[in-house]
């Protein structure tokens, strides 16, 4: 079961903000606009050596426009939370940021040799495929 508190932690939401740690509370935070800082935080965690990674989630021109409001749109927040959810599970499975990154950025045979991170960024359905692979690894099935 997904720990929504873990996703909130990856997004950098304040630990004291109990509402953001429940499923409905996190959905509400996303709908009302996650802080722009959450994008920078997730990009730094997932791809620390890639300054351009955040622009795969939010195009650069849009990112520049968002600086004024300091908030992401609901769609951007949903995409970001999707990446945070997968990152959180990858960390849980691999117990190491380096190994979680290696999994996400290395082609995987169960997704036609695509990189899991690319599949996650592509769509919610892609994220579910990667989550299934991680679940198989976590619970001992072949992946």
From TrEMBL:
InterPro entries: Antitox_Xre, Xre-like_HTH, Xre/MbcA/ParS-like_toxin-bd. It comes from the Bacteria. NCBIfam families: TAS_TIGR02293. Residues 90-140 form the Antitoxin Xre/MbcA/ParS-like toxin-binding domain. This is DUF2384 domain-containing protein. It holds the Pfam family Xre_MbcA_ParS_C. Residues 27-85 form the Antitoxin Xre-like helix-turn-helix domain.
